[in-house]
# Entry
Amino acid sequence: MRGAATILSLSLCLISAPTVFAQNSPPRNLILFVPDGLRALKVTPETAPAMSAVRDKGVNFRNSHSLFPTFTMANASGMASGHYLGDSGVFSNSIYTGRATSVQNGSTIPFIEHDQVLGDLDEQFNGDYLNEETLLKAARKAGFSTAAIGKVGPTLMFDHTERTGRETITIDDQTGGVDKAGKLLGIPLSEEMKDALSKAGLALETPSRGDNAKAGDAKTPGTTEANTKQQAYMADVATKVVLPMFKARNKPFVLVFWSRDPDGTQHNQGDSLNKVTPGINGPSSLASIRNADDNLAQLRKALDDLGLSGTTNIMISADHGFSTISKESKTSATVKSTYPDTPEGFLPLGFLAIDLAKSLGLPLFDPNDKFAAVGDNAYPKAGNAYIGKDKDKPDLIVATNGGSDLIYLPSRDKALAAKTVKALLKQDYISGIFVDDQLGSFPGALPLSAINLSGKAVTPHPAIAVSFRSYSTGCDQPPACQVEVADTVLRQGQGMHGSFGRGDTHNFMAAIGPDFKAGFVDPLPVSNADVGITAAHLLGLKREAKGKLIGRVMTEAMPNGKTPKVMSETTRSKPDDQGLRTVLVGQKVGAQRYFDVAGFPGRTVGLDAKK
# Structure
């Protein structure tokens, strides 16, 4: 048996050299189904029969991993490119770009789940902000029919430079919609698609989410409805238009279907306003899991009806897990003040930026409000902030995201980095600090390179990434009832992700099809970067890699595939003067690293106090 290092070398060769995949002649079809925010532990024959059947009859990737920070766009970049975030540069859902984004009020910290924002990013960064070839782009160049259908943002990620709609079919929330100036928000529909949708009796504009989009406020619960109407439309487009169209073309295809549920409902659910139980384990969240499952069942039935099941591989991978939101802290200065639409004693949106500004004695400016100064008892509109005496030359920049935040230091000042780390270590809501290697080593923190956040990305690299505290409400499987402090406009009791707790890193993954084993439980660690590499391998695609932070082909899940060896590893920082240290627990397959959990022992689900 070859060693694990050989497997890593194989995955690199798949990117840089022609792939020999002789058994696929002609090549198979591929469907990548992404149930956004689906926790592995929540899939049972009762809650999700279709996904449970794929897992149990095909491959059960039980040792699965979301990429940290555990956000949608970050993990979409991993699936689309096969690279970790240090190469893709998509470090979270909101990232600092250093350049004004016109469609978001000139902010330099855009929320990138938006088709026009992704277009702006491409223009700003040499025509391709991802800087790595994506799965659908490579597939269509190789002659496959390609389509991406689902949630706005990650759907376009898979072929984001193709904005005509004629080469790759892209259908998301913004399809058919226009802005105030009458400009299309989404990717246009080709004449072929317009005609096919009309013949199928389907609208040329994606329906809205309706009540599912209602998040409520501090006194009003959010939604109690799953995103059924919008996703039913998308499933109909896939099964009644796209798949029949692809079959008629008589050539192999790749379809990405990104289900907004359960993520969208878990975020906004109104089952638990200002309470951490039931949190994201209430009836609305369960309905959203079943909604995504129904979409998968509809896709599989269409494959059967069209006679395509025998030649189609199906890969399922959630982008991340999920947690219930906590807004509690005993150390934050913000809980001693009052803020608009924030219950007394709870953390407001932007608490990290506010606390850092107070600790460093510096003013705060709002990049989402034309860089206006943020006064006392106020918070930045989106939580993002410029910190410093001069808004044109900020000392720190905070990109707010949820269960973790990013901090940028434009000056690269090592002394300021040290002060910032010390300020972070004083807060009880912090659990895990990672600092750019070039800024030095700091007690209590690990380097960004330890979690593959230092690479060839063309977007600005953060100087510091922080994960927030998480804990369990006491269920039998702690990751299934994880609660995390979250920097978000959403409320305590609603849902979020982004942390390094196991509740967020343990995403659901499974696969079935002619090129996968049947009834196989894979004990090896796998990640969303592996999904991107394995998908390309199955399709026989050739891609030139610019960065080296690449996933591996999951050969152990394939008939007659090699099974490499796995090792466990734990990395610990030096303690600070309080005894706090960041601990990273993971696994290795050859040189390939997987990150189970990280943070301060006792403050992170999956990392007990003895670590």
Observations:
- The CA atoms of residues 90 and 334 lie 30 Å apart.
- The chain has 15 helices and 25 strands.
- Residues 1-24 have pLDDT under 50 and may be disordered.
- The longest helix spans residues 283-306.
